[in-house]
Amino acid sequence: MEIFSFVDDVKRMDKRQAIYQVLNFGMIISTALMIWKGLMVMTGSESPIVVVLSGSMEPAFHRGDLLLLTNYEEEPIRAGDIVVFRIEGRDIPIVHRVLKIHEKNDSYVKFLTKGDNNQVDDRGLYSPGQLWLEKKDVIGRARGFLPYIAVLGFFVLVHREN
Amino acid sequence: MSSSTNTKNISSKPIKINKWDTNALKNALNDACKKYFKETLNYTEDYSVMDRRLYISLISCLFSLYALIYDWFNPFPKSRSVLIACVASYFIIAGILTFYMRFIENGRFFTGKLIDKTGIDPGQKCKIISKLKKYDDIYNLTLEYYDGTNTSTSSVAVLKKSVGNYFDENGVLCYDKYINDLKKIYDQARSNARKVK
């Protein structure tokens, strides 16, 4: 009975070993957490890795791809950049391309986005009455990309042929 | 203490482990050795080495917990400097912990003191280190014996045997066989120390 042998192991552990196991587990979780926070600080973005959720940027990005984002203040957003933004009041990050920019001398920017694979620009997605996005809505610009389902899809294809 | 009677009941059953898992083998042998020293030879265990390791782990976990909570209440751009400080400290402390476990603790799993009840002898100390490499079957047990508080009178005894000597086909620990070998090296260490004296 495999389960009961585990219980025996736990009972044999004295208090210190039990604390050590708990702390070990805590260290594993903390390492993952600290790596994530470290990435956040390094890239300047509150969510440095996002998953593409829709097919609105095909053929560039497909559903399930991973994107690495950076959000540096010194690099201004320009038309043609792929940005990941969040509409105020909604949780889902959207990955689209910047179409138009209005920029003032004090570097206050407003921009309009559109998905490559969409027919119309994103004004339909913005909040009612909102016509432009601002810097504060942006999570970051896509800097790196990891094709994800593509790899799995390849494996599925090969497996099916067998 | 009720917990000690509990362990007595559990440990009176022969310990059975997965004989292919070297970690379980090492832990079973270490636990049996500790049991022998504590129950039969009446050593009291000194927990300071392990406690220090636990404190270092605890501090590093506290740093990461603090970072998590601070970031939760002050979303990202505001918490930047706190995060940098916490991440850096966390990795430094984790580095210290690795250093501590590798070089200072180095496989030592038991530090014990034997206090003489008559109060005449200043008491003996024992430090036991065990090593079992990942896919190896040779269990190295090093016993450092210090007679009295004068640490210059010390002797070292080593037990190097295959774990196959102590575990049977089903992974059950043959406690008596192991204790025999332990007793041999312990007596050897003690007599060596006396000779030096």
From TrEMBL, chain A:
Subunit structure: Component of the signal peptidase complex.
Protein's organism: Rotaria socialis
Protein location: Endoplasmic reticulum membrane
Residues passing through the membrane, by range: 18-36, 138-158
The UniProt record lists the keyword S-adenosyl-L-methionine: no
Main location group: endoplasmic reticulum
Keywords in alphabetical order: Endoplasmic reticulum, Hydrolase, Membrane, Protease, Signal-anchor, Transmembrane, Transmembrane helix
Catalytic reaction annotation: Cleavage of hydrophobic, N-terminal signal or leader sequences from secreted and periplasmic proteins
Membrane topology value: Single-pass type II membrane protein
Family: Belongs to the peptidase S26B family.
Molecular function GO labels: serine-type endopeptidase activity; signal peptidase activity
Protein name as annotated: Signal peptidase complex catalytic subunit SEC11
Ranges in coiled-coil conformation: none
Pfam families referenced in this protein's UniProt entry, alphabetically: Peptidase_S24 (PF00717)
Function: Catalytic component of the signal peptidase complex (SPC) which catalyzes the cleavage of N-terminal signal sequences from nascent proteins as they are translocated into the lumen of the endoplasmic reticulum. Specifically cleaves N-terminal signal peptides that contain a hydrophobic alpha-helix (h-region) shorter than 18-20 amino acids.
GO terms, biological process: signal peptide processing
PANTHER family noted in UniProt: SIGNAL PEPTIDASE COMPLEX CATALYTIC SUBUNIT SEC11
EC number: 3.4.21.89
Domain Peptidase S24/S26A/S26B/S26C: 37-110
InterPro entries registered for this protein in UniProt: LexA/Signal_pep-like_sf, Pept_S26A_signal_pept_1_CS, Pept_S26A_signal_pept_1_Ser-AS, Peptidase_S24_S26A/B/C, Peptidase_S26, Peptidase_S26B
GO cellular component, one term: signal peptidase complex
UniProtKB/TrEMBL annotation, chain B:
Family that this chain belongs to: Belongs to the SPCS2 family.
Entries under InterPro entries matching the protein: Spc2/SPCS2
A Gene Ontology term for the protein's cellular component: signal peptidase complex
Chief place of localization: endoplasmic reticulum
Native source species: Rotaria socialis
UniProt keyword Isomerase present: no
Alphabetical keyword list: Endoplasmic reticulum, Membrane, Transmembrane, Transmembrane helix
Molecular-function GO terms, alphabetical: peptidase activity
Topology relative to the membrane: Multi-pass membrane protein
Gene Ontology biological process terms, A to Z: protein targeting to ER; signal peptide processing
Functional description taken from the UniProt entry: Component of the signal peptidase complex (SPC) which catalyzes the cleavage of N-terminal signal sequences from nascent proteins as they are translocated into the lumen of the endoplasmic reticulum. Enhances the enzymatic activity of SPC and facilitates the interactions between different components of the translocation site.
One Pfam family linked to the record: SPC25
Protein name per Swiss-Prot or TrEMBL: Signal peptidase complex subunit 2
Membrane-crossing residue ranges in chain numbering: 54-73, 79-100
Compartment list: Endoplasmic reticulum membrane
